Structure of Branched-chain-amino-acid aminotransferase:
Amino acid sequence: IVWTKEDGWQQPELLPYGPIQMDPASSVLHYGQEVFEGLKAYRREDGSIVTFRPDENAKRLNDSARRLALPEIPVELFVAAVRELVAADAEWVPRGADQTLYLRPFMIADESFLGVRSAERARFMVIASPAGPYFSGGVKPVSIWLSQQYARAGRGGTGAAKCGGNYAASLLPQNEAAAQGCQQVLFTDSATPDTIDELGGMNLFLVRADGTLLTPQLNGNILEGITRKSLIELARDRGMAVEERELTVSEWRAGVADGSITEAFACGTAAVITPIGQLKATDFTIDFGAAAPGPTTLALREELTGIQFGTRADTHGWLDLVVKG
Ligand code: PMP
C-alpha cells in the first residue's frame, strides 16, 4: 500500500512475492526511515488459522512510525492486510508444535531526494515465511552475553521503536555474543550500565523464589513486547505478583547467589518463552545449570502457546480467526 502526503493511503494490492522496484535515491536507503513488526499465524488442531493480537502490532507500528516521522496506518487497514495475506497463504501455515507462518509487516519511506528531511511518500508491505523454533532444540536453555561495550539505545533515541536502525546497531554485539558461544546479547542502559534493558530481539524476565515475576519497566529504551505485555496479564490471572521496575545485573547476580532469584527467561514472538541457562560477561558467569528451564518458565510457556494453538481458552479474546477449521 502506498501513502502520499496529498492522498493518504491508497488501495491495497495482493501481489505474488518478488523483487520490488526502488529508486537509488529513495530516502529509506540513505536515512533508515523504516519501521517493522513481527507476528505469527498459528494452525490449530481443527485446521483453523489464527493470528495473535494483530491490533497490538498495528498500534506499535504506529508508535514506531511517529518516532521515525512516518505516517500512521489505520489499525483496520493493517489488520485487513495481515488477514488477506494469511488467507491467501493458508497452505503455507504449517502444522505442528512450534511451527508457524511468520509475518513481517513493514513501512519504508520511499521518496527520491538527497537532502535530510522526512519523506512525503511511504510504502507499507507485509511478507510471510514459514518458521520453526527460533532457537534450535525447543525449550533448551540459551546462553546470553552481556554487552559491556555497546549500547542498543540511548536516552531520547529510538530504543522504544521497532526500526531497522536499532537492529543495525545490535548486529556487531550479536556477533560478539556468538563468538562467546552465546545465542543472544543482553543490553543494559547506556547511561547506567548496570540497568538491564532487553536482549537483541527479546524482553527479559526474572523469577523470584517466592514466585514474583520481575521485568524491566518501559523506560523509553526498550521495546514494549507484545509477548511481555501478554505474559504480565497471564501471570496476574494466575495470582502471581509482577514487578515492572528498574532491574540491575548486580541484583540478578546477588539474587542467584543467595537463592532468591531462581529462573530467567527471554520472551518474544520469535522466541516465545525461552529459558536462560547462562549469563556470561567478561568478568563473571551466572549459571542456572539444571534449574533451567524452571517450573514458572514452563508453566507460562504452556499457557501462552496453549492459547495460540487453541488447547487453552482464549479468555482475553486475543486471537483473530482468519481461516475457519
Ligand atoms: N525486544 C526486541 C528488541 C525485539 O526485537 C522483540 C521482538 N519483536 C521483542 C523485544 C519482543 O517483542 P514481541 O513480544 O512483540 O515479539
Observations:
- Residues 9 and 238 are 42 Å apart (CA to CA).
- The chain has a mean pLDDT of 95.
